[in-house]
Write a structure and sequence with these properties.
Oligomer: heterodimer
Strand content of chain B: 25-35%
Largest interface: A-B, 23 and 28 residues
Bound molecules: adenosine-5'-triphosphate, magnesium ion
Radius of gyration of chain A: 31 Å
Strand order of the largest sheet of chain B: 6-7-8-3-9-10
Number of strands of chain A: 4
Distance between the termini of chain A: 29 Å
Number of helices of chain B: 9
Structural class of chain A: mainly alpha
């Protein structure tokens, strides 16, 4: 191996890549656009849905309760609800989302309340439908208030203190630091994106540098120079790795900017500054441990080597760029699958999973951004990923030495 | 100097089984001479020349090119060989100058030497006007000149040319013929494959007729004419190849 030749090939490939619009797009534009898009579009969409749902009071219908005018009147006067008489086909209307919910008031409800007899109010809704759920919330609040008032009257009637029917209160409070909340909620998502982008960043240059050169005939030109095959393939590998890591770096940068800008937009400048400064109690916004993000990047490094080597090998094996695309496109699923498995609740890091490529890094990243450093597992993950990466690179170099692959017809 | 000794290359083909693309081929090309390898499609020309250029390894036999054995010293052979084929393309996003510099560097030249060679080649091939333009904007003729420049950047003593005029118009093809003659005049060893009889008649000092992987006839044009009792090279070729193919 001659370092000079490897670097010559690398420098030429770098110059070539920087003149190729498609490489530039996959390296800079995709991460620069995707990250803010995810943060802003999803955030804005959720915000918009909630706002419109709140702006239009939900339409609900009442079944029965003809003998209970007082509860009906109170319900009709409730500001957060539009009450209509129940049509015959109310079940279909709920299913068609034309009615958000229907409440059934039992016969003689007012009288039952007055006589302290048991009664049951039923709310019909569309399970899992966001707007229906919102109507159910309003109805529950209304009847909850009604129940509280009835209870208060009964206590007064018997001259009992207000706390009589409520011996104690239950309160929950978050005790986990904000970066752990962040790690658990969206923290798993960030390394997942980095892993995905480190792979998608590899696809185009790998196809172009091997299958593409074979198809265009430039590979044969290159092979008839005295540079050894290992130097040529290493130069190309370094370029693919560079593109992959640049994609990751751009994603990180774009993500940081999106988080800060998005955070300011959502919670205001003051609170964001307090959060960034790490002030106690200020941080209601979930945050990520910056040192953990550094750890993530360290783990993604050998993974990028693995991806670059595998993609180059596959591309080398293909006769044409089209064929290489056909092989590499399903590889995205192979990368996504373990990454998504790592996001599933309950899948936690252990010594066996620490050996599963891609999945292990996803799981470790979840811990790292939560500020957790399980050193033994991290060493196992980094070590095993390095072993896989080295094996893949060795396989790639071997493949490049095979003339049946280089001169495939 | 090229000495091919009993060169053999077999390919495994899924449909045809084992294919003997080159079968026991031996010949010698002298410095200052042009050796023409004449053969029809699929005769084994490209396979032979790729073995001489060490792009692929022989299955049997061997060759000594520019004093080095292709099997044991492939890098030394490549450093002394210029290989140009219809299939060896250029990088579209590099300029002509960058292309010459890239192959110069891969051939171990330093920057000063590369600058000297670039200036020389650009003058000889009349490339000054487009030296700093990108190759993908070039006409076929300009590309051909750039290819010749990249083949010659390290001033190789042996030139291996595989159908270099394929797909070129008359003017560009004449340019190639002139360039090959100049190489001969400078004492280089040239091997030139083609299926065009007139090119062989114009250029070659010795001719080898290859058919079905085997070298069936060899000699100077005069020798071949005498041996087969025909003036026309095409008639000689048909006789050697075993009559007209009816298909
Ligand atoms: N990589 C390969 N795998 C399998 N068979 C091959 C391979 N390369 C060449 N062949 C076969 O070897 C034989 C000789 O091919 P070759 O390319 O050397 O011929 P050629 O004289 O250059 O023909 P052409 O005029 O078409 O360029 C053909 O039958 C071809 O199909
Ligand atoms: Mg050929």
């Amino acid at each position: 191996m001659k370092l000079r030749d490897t670097l010559t090939v690398y420098r030429k490939e770098l110059r070539d890549a920087l003149r190729d619009r498609r490489t530039l797009v996959s390296m800079f534009l995709v991460p620069a656009v995707i990250m803010p898009a995810i943060f802003f579009l999803f955030g804005a969409a959720t915000y918009q849905v909630v706002k419109t749902a709140k702006a239009q009071p939900p339409v609900v219908a009442v079944l029965g309760g003809e003998e209970s005018p007082s509860v009906r009147a109170a319900l009709a006067a409730q500001p957060g609800l539009v009450v209509v008489p129940a049509p015959d086909d109310w079940r279909e209307r709920i299913a068609d989302k034309r009615l958000r919910a229907v409440v059934e008031i039992p016969a003689r409800f007012d009288a039952l309340l007055a006589s302290h007899a048991p009664a049951e109010v039923t709310i019909y809704h569309y399970e899992g439908e966001f707007k229906s759920g919102f109507a159910v919330g309003e109805l529950r609040r209304f009847f909850g208030d009604l129940r509280e008032r009835a209870l208060a009257e009964r206590l007064v009637e018997r001259s009992l203190p207000a706390g009589f029917a409520r011996p104690f209160e239950i309160r929950t409070e978050n005790a986990a630091p904000p970066e752990k909340v962040g790690g658990n909620t969206f923290g798993g998502f960030i390394p997942y994106l980095l892993i995905l982008l480190s792979f998608t960043g590899v696809i185009y240059p790998a196809i172009d540098l091997m299958a593409g050169e074979k198809e265009r005939g430039t590979l044969e030109t290159l092979l008839c120079s005295p540079a050894s095959r290992i130097d040529i393939v290493m130069g190309k590998f370094l370029l693919v790795l560079t593109v992959s890591l640049t994609t990751v770096a751009c994603s990180l940068l774009s993500m940081t900017v999106s988080l800060i800008v998005g955070g300011i937009a959502m919670v205001g400048t003051g609170r964001m500054a307090a959060t960034l400064a790490g002030e106690q109690g200020a941080a209601t916004l979930p945050s990520l441990d910056p040192l953990g993000v550094v750890g993530v990047v360290v783990l993604v490094l050998p993974l990028a080597v693995l991806f670059a080597a595998v993609a180059l090998t596959i591309s080398l094996f293909a006769r044409t760029q089209k064929e290489a695309q056909t092989y590499l496109a399903p590889m995205v699923a192979v990368v996504i699958l373990p990454a998504v498995a790592g996001l599933l609740p309950g899948v936690e890091l252990n010594s066996t999973l620490a050996l599963v490529p891609v999945l292990n890094v996803t799981l470790a990243c979840k811990e790292l951004v939560s500020g957790e450093w399980p050193w033994a597992h991290l060493a196992l993950i980094f070590g095993s990923t390095c072993v896989y990466a080295t094996a893949a690179l060795a396989g790639c170099v071997r493949m490049f030495g095979r003339e049946s692959v280089l001169f495939r017809t | 100097m090229i000495e091919a000794r009993h060169l053999l290359k077999t390919f495994r083909d899924r449909k045809r089984g084992e294919v003997r693309a080159v079968d026991n081929v031996s010949f010698v090309c002298e410095p200052g001479r042009i050796y023409g390898l004449l053969g029809a499609n699929g005769a084994g020309k490209t396979t032979t020349l790729r073995m001489l250029a060490t792009l692929i390894a022989p299955s049997g036999g061997g060759a000594v090119v520019a004093g080095f054995d292709v099997t044991t010293h492939p890098a030394e052979v490549r450093a002394r060989v210029g290989f140009l084929a219809a299939s060896t393309a250029l990088y579209g996003r590099l300029t002509a100058r960058e292309t010459i510099a890239y192959f110069g560097r891969l051939n171990g030249l330093d920057d000063a030497r590369i600058a000297v060679r670039t200036a020389q080649l650009a003058e000889e091939l009349a490339m000054e006007d487009f030296l700093d333009r990108r190759v993908d904007t070039f006409s076929t003729g300009m590309k051909q000149k750039t290819s010749i420049a990249r083949t010659l950047v390290h001033d190789p003593e042996v030139l291996i040319l595989d159908e270099p005029t394929l797909g070129l118009d008359v003017m560009a093809a004449r340019g190639i013929v002139r360039f090959v003659r100049e190489c001969r005049a400078r004492g280089k060893t040239v091997i030139y494959s083609t299926h065009i009889m007139s090119e062989v008649e114009k250029l070659c000092d010795r001719v080898g007729i290859i058919h079905g992987g085997q070298l069936l006839a060899e000699g100077t044009l005069a020798e071949l004419r005498q041996q087969y009792g025909e003036e026309d090279l095409e008639e000689i070729f048909v006789k050697v190849a075993g009559g007209e193919a009816i298909a």
